[in-house]
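INTERNAL TRANSFER SHEET
From: sequence group
To: structure group
Subject: V-type ATP synthase beta chain

Please process the attached sequence and return the structure record in the designated field. Keep the field labels unchanged so the import script can parse them.
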Amino acid sequence: MKKEYLLLDKIEGPLVMLSKVENAVYDEIIDIVVDGKRTKKGKIVKIEEDKVIAQVFESTAGLSLHNTSVRFTGKPLEIPLSKEILGRTFNGIGEPIDQAGEIYSTQSYSVNGRPINPVARIYPRDYIQTGISSIDALTTLIRGQKLPIFSGNGLPHNELAVQIVRQAKIQGAGNDNFAIVFAALGVKHDDADYFRRSFEESGVLEKVVMYVNLADDPIVERIIAPRSALTAAEYLAFEEGMHILVIMTDMTSYCEALREVSSAREEVPSRKGYPGYMYSDLASLYERAGMMRGREGSITQLPILSMPNDDITHPVPDLTGYITEGQIVIGRDLYQRNIYPPINILPSLSRLMKDGIGEGYTREDHGDLANQLFASYSHVQDVRALVQVIGEDDLSELDKKYMEFGKLFEAKYVTQGFDENRSMEETLDLAWEILSVLPKEELDRLNPKYIEKYGKW
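Return from structure group:
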């Protein structure tokens, strides 16, 4: 027989506390009845002997110690899932918010998911084409990888996310088995409308599942939203055999929510006030990407986070970098020079890139070409530093060539239109065209047979 508890001990921010509770379980969902009629949901986040602390998914406004009763459901938060979720929009706890009706399914799935058994994991191979040259050629996104985008406040990461959603495709995967799960965390109303409108106008909405948590939505819902999105991704990938790209923006908002709830729980803070368990919490999200032996589908993650004060050593990008396999860095100096997308390629990298490019995947010259572009553009930075000292007129002829290469690389290669979708072939051919500015003897990272075959001298 289920018990109903008629008296709360304390209400503090999004938390409610009860005592003399029997057989409570961590992460269990509770039903909170206010004034005998209005029901809210909560989740148990701490148990100390017979005392329980629960987070309320909605506002605690209207709750008092004496007008509230609590019932324990005996199960974690579960969301119903079927293939009908494609093209739909949900809130952070998986409830439809697009006025298109409920999702009916014979099964519900726990948002906490299950970690993929390391023995069952398949090493990520094959690439996802984004249509953006600086990503496809230099920080290639591999199917099953987790590759974050490090941005900053005011930089166009939302536009980049929309462009990737519109253009992304996997070699050999059709529209029927490739989809996007998009989680917007703590976004403003106009940003949420921008995402919806952009997906609708570009005709990709039917292959996108959106989980939207607005800035004025409850903090606790922001902590659940990425878990709901990843649960939907796992269902589509491992039960429906689809290839799923998960884009989560902005993970910094998620970490701020963690910090706020941790503070309300009166936990001992770590760096910059964030909870000490933030690393393992982020890992519990990021490690849900991958491919499994014996299953057709895959989950690739592209989390986006804004670095406070553009500080890459801030705890959020710092911990994210430890868990994930590389990063794509958006540069403010490039953005200020009207370069879109302002991807700073030198601090960007994809650690799994080498295993998903080259012959049989992209093209035989891809690896050498990427190394040469990195090396040449790195030398451009040295030459630009020299110009600050001696001026451009006193540069050697070779250094002037590098200056020309740098301008051309940023203007024609890194820069591309918001609606410009380049194929991998176009991206690699354009790289050869830009490298032809430099003397052939400077291309020491390229195999001579590739220079002979693809070179434009």
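Handover comment: The radius of gyration is 25 Å. The first helix runs from residue 133 to 136.
Transfer complete.
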